[in-house]
Amino acid sequence: MKINKIKKMKNGKYKLELDNKESIITYDEVILNNNLLFNKEIDSDIFNKLNNENDYYNIYSKVIKYITTKMRSKLEIIKYIEKLGVSSKDKMIDDLMNINLINDEMFLRAFINDKINLTNDGLFKIKKELLSHDIDEKLIDEELAKYDENIFRNKLNKIAVKKIKSNIKSSKYILKQKLFNDFLNLGYSRELINEVLSQININDDKQIEREYNSLYKKLSKKYKGNELDFQIKNKLYSKGFNQESINELKKMDSY
User: Fold this and answer.
1) Residue 113 above 50 pLDDT?
2) Which of 22, 35, 64, 196 has its CB surrounded by the most CB atoms within 10 Å?
3) Range of the domain at 243
């Protein structure tokens, strides 16, 4: 078979038009690898070789798209390649590493930067996710150590202030417990969480007044006098309001 024409297509591939009216859709790498710009004759061996290389580069282009859509770790890319059923997996990995599309150090830096700038995740959660990508723990610790702890302290403060502003019913005790658990789940250390929460002043006067009025309306249908006071106090205690706040509320209510 003889190549009559090599035509570049809009998708970046090339079309080889043969003298037997057949055509082959291929890649520039395949053309260069097989010296097709100068060798116009294709025998059966070369034809089969072209098909095999086309299969390789069809999958290779899918992997390139997968990587360029979002930065991936080496582990993610290997799993994707295996899913596609590549026979020459090692060659593809080497090819990708040679052009720096597989680079766990770059992935590590980009991953941490995105997590810190785009999420509320703490150090422990970020590290756990990176370890799941099979990134070297020493590299993770070295990169995370470059970030000032004040970045994470400020994050916690902002989250806490926002949640406190939206709090309409929880006591400060319950709210701090919720914040503590939320911050733990986000991957912050107990020490940092306790430090931040100890410096936050939460006023729950409106909350206790609202709860008191709600309980009074509900329980006064069943209890009266001292028994009503006792039941209301117990309910308020169970909701995390302290005795001082409850007694202060009662004083105000007596006027």
Assistant:
1) yes
2) 196
3) 205-254
